[in-house]
Amino acid sequence: MDVAFNEVSYEYNDAGTTVQALHGVTLRVPAGRFVAVVGASGAGKSTLVQHLNGLLLPTKGTVEIGDVCLPEQKKQLQPLRKKVGFVFQYPEHQLFEETVEKEIGYVLRMQGVSKVEAAKTAAAALHTVGLPPALLSASPFQLSGGQKRRVAIASVLVQQPKMLVLDEPGAGLDPASKEALFQLLCNYRQTNNASIWVVTHSMDDVAKYADFCVVMHNGTPLMVGEPAAVFQAGDVLQTAKLALPKAMAFAQKAIPSKGTIPFLRDAATLADWLIDRKGGQQ
Description:
four-stranded antiparallel sheet, globular, 10 strands
């Protein structure tokens, strides 16, 4: 789904004081992208993405998500939220049902879907997130942290959203669980031609998975574009207080002070670059 923020500002009241969390946000993101929203704490990342399915509505300006324009079309929030799935940080803290099957199928039952159809869809969603059917009868509270995170995501995927928005999805997960989670997101995007929006503090994840980046600073986009351009814009990184991905930081040490740092997604691309560099020096 195409997304457009048009001069969006958002403010709220905090103990009698007006706080402006977003101001003058204008950006365009085409459908089907893997978008990383980055920036320092308090930069407006979570506030920005909560406008994508109407959890927050602009104080000024408009947000266009597909063919829905907010706040003008507030009556379209329910169908919009079927298309835009939102997963909060630590979503496993919101689990409450007796079994995994009931947890995943809850939203469908609330929409009047039969128990049989809800159970069938829940099983399919569990398969999508890479968990075995034996867990359908298990208590979600007995699962590992990574499994709980996947169940929470499955409960959103049952509606087959065209856009999936996740706030710090890798938070608290061990490296293997986080890798599996991001591969799940990549697979869902490819299989369903969906858009993925992720709020993250991990520049390694941005470099490895994202193909579009929104750098937030003081409630407004500082830079919008491909990760390669962002990570090669030293002034932007400095202003936004962002570090280079580990692979690029390592490469920086190997390049003379006036050299250009290549865009390196991960350790594998770093290794290839080092081999090529060594060969070129022989």
